Amino acid sequence: MDSQIYGVRILLFLALFSFLASAYSALPENPAVKASNSTVQINSNSVLVALLDSHYTELSELVEKALLLQPLEEAVSKHNITIFAPRNEALERDLDPEFKRFLLEPGNLKSLQNLLLFHMIPSRIESKHWPVEVNRKPVHHTSLCREASDEKILLRAKNGEKIVSTAKVFKSDDIIRPDGIIHGIERLLIPKSVQQDFNARRSLRATSAVLPEGAPEVDPRTHRLKKPAPPVPVGAAPVLPIFDALAPGPSLAPAPAPGPGGPHHHFDGESQVKDFIQTLLHYGGYNELADILVNLTSLATEMGRLVSEGYVLTVLAPNDEAMAKLTTDQLSEPGAPEQIMYYHLIPEYQTEESMYNSVRRFGKVNYDTLRLPHKVVAEEADGSVKFGQGEGFAYLFDPDIYTDGRISVQGIDGVLFPAEESKAAPRAAPVAKIVSKPRRGKLLEMTCRMLGAVGHDSHFSSCH
């Protein structure tokens, strides 16, 4: 009896063991093991190494700036990839400068990554795999860009030339490696998502407060038209007064703007200041700055008075996130809010384009501020303008929020403070004052002669 029970127990144990073994085999792979196996080391014969060392230098630099090396290493470890590499001229000379500046801005890193991944296909496509023109059936492929999954890469042949979407292949099978292949194309492929992001940013700039379309835009410094005025019908009144048509001469100032305290106020500065503060509130993210200008200080009134008297201003506007980092000690001291804001007011009219061109040309530019004598330093960094030095710096990331020809507002992501005063020189030990002896000789002789001449020519006579 005991032997039968023991045999039944053995059979039940074997059945349970076989069930657990089959269930374990049906389980998915251990994610930790799978992750460890997926991290394959990239050897020197990889297509990624070949791309970084190739003559496609502009593309390789963009791949490094977009931080795509690690994701591409993972993609290469899973499957072969095909890279359509635009030539250097397509990225350096033929590309719209405004679009390239948009791609290189720190806040648009995702758009740059999507643009580059759109040029890569997770499969190996050699020239022999290209569709033949006789078949007239183009082949569609999905790129590595996930946001453009619904937008396929079109491969076709036309007039004996290989075409990728809208770009011609000028050198097929340019670089061949075991884990991938690179074809050279003549132009850049831009996915719809990146184009939409760029158009949205450009339309945002277009909606900033500017002069109405069709009205002549006058440069406040030279008082000249910035662009040609639209054609005027015959017999119509002149677009500008006669004064503006005169060439500035020796007796004619180049601009009619009066100096400080002048009797005539040609500009309504208070309305312009109200407009730019209202624009900040509607734009969003700059409520703290507007509150300081209106409620904590009288800067709004002062700025309006300056603009009314003919001055121009550029406001470096820190956003709310940057203003929230200010401590109570920094704002509680008497006059502290005014001093902070004065350092963000530049008595010049600068736009994003003018500042970026300046730092690109001169490296570093020192702008005067209303907090005399301190200046704010600007330089180029990551395709944008960087203000400040050391740890206290800020990037220009909301350009041209408000531009009306007199006031320009540029959004920055930090609060700027002037560099610390240079270390006070150690006080030197008191030195005995050396009194120089009066010079005699020729100087004294000349003085006596002058006095004698004055006395000789005098018309006054002494009393006898």
Automatic annotation (TrEMBL):
Gene Ontology CC terms, in alphabetical order: extracellular region
PROSITE patterns the UniProt entry points to: FAS1
SUPFAM superfamilies xref list: FAS1 domain (SSF82153)
Family: Belongs to the fasciclin-like AGP family.
Protein name (record): FASCICLIN-like arabinogalactan protein 17
Domain FAS1: 43-189, 273-401
Localization (cell): Secreted
Chief location: secreted
One Pfam family of this chain: Fasciclin
Stretches that traverse the bilayer: none
Function: May be a cell surface adhesion protein.
Range of residues in the leader sequence: 1-25
Keywords, in A-Z order: Glycoprotein, Proteoglycan, Repeat, Secreted, Signal
InterPro entries xref list: FAS1_dom_sf (IPR036378), FAS1_domain (IPR000782), FLA15/16/17/18 (IPR044654)
